[in-house]
Write a structure and sequence with these properties.
The chain is mainly alpha-helical. It has one domain. The protein is 72% helix and 0% strand. Bound molecules: protoporphyrin IX containing FE. Protoporphyrin IX containing FE binds next to helix 1, helix 2, helix 4 and helix 7.
Length: 184
């Protein structure tokens, strides 16, 4: 397995975990109660959401870091942190880096939630939606082999990215409907 394959694998796991985290976050925000509702037993949703965020962040970091060890990708540290002159698909590289900074922002601000207070923290936490929007465009359109090839939307990896995107979109729509009904 080459460094590019390994990096792509880390990226796919990070994306799957971030998808799971958005869905868990949506359950938290709608006050889903697993004891009263299905599965009628206690599930520590907040703990899962919290720890999953740290694991996801580590993988989001690892995904570009592995590329630095590839002799074929041609990425230097600056191409990862500020990829406007990076090799290959610059726009999608930039969206990947924006995702990295946005997820870091969400996790760091959540760490300081007790000090920030809910009123300040919560609007900052909506950055999560921006982060995953960038993530799905990055993941859908980038060539996993970094050869500038057009994306094959029916390739297994792309289907995984697209499925996660659809799940997040559907969950977010339900969340919006819930909020609108509550307001009405
Ligand atoms: C240590 C890190 C994190 C903590 C402590 C945390 C905590 C929380 C809490 C308490 C809620 C419920 C908010 C409420 O309605 O009262 C929430 C919601 C949410 N979280 Fe997180 N979170 C973390 C990281 C993340 C990450 C990394 C993502 C995804 C990138 C994420 C995505 C979401 C989403 C989408 C919601 C629903 C927001 C809404 O529409 O109301 N969270 N989070």
């Amino acid at each position: 397995m080459s460094a590019v394959d390994l990096s792509s694998f880390a990226g796919l796991i990070a994306m799957s975990l971030l998808t799971l985290n958005v869905l868990l976050g949506l359950l938290l925000s709608t006050r889903y109660h697993p004891l009263r509702q299905w599965p009628h037993r206690w599930v520590p949703i907040f703990k899962f959401h919290n720890w999953n965020a740290y694991v996801s962040l580590s993988l989001v970091f690892l995904h570009p870091a592995i590329l630095l060890f590839s002799s074929t990708a041609g990425f230097k540290i600056f191409d990862v942190l500020w990829p406007i002159h990076s090799p290959g698909q610059r726009l999608y590289n930039c969206l990947g880096t924006i995702t990295f900074y946005a997820v870091t922002f969400v996790v760091v601000t959540s760490h300081f939630r007790p000090r920030l207070g809910n009123r300040i923290w919560k609007p900052l936490h909506y950055t999560a939606y921006f982060a995953v929007a960038c993530l799905f465009v990055h993941g859908t359109f980038i060539d996993p082999n970094l050869k500038n090839a057009p994306p094959d939307f029916l390739d297994g990896e792309k289907v995984l990215v697209e499925s996660c995107g659809v799940l997040v979109l559907a969950g977010s729509m339900l969340r919006l409907r819930h909020a609108l009904r509550k307001r009405a």
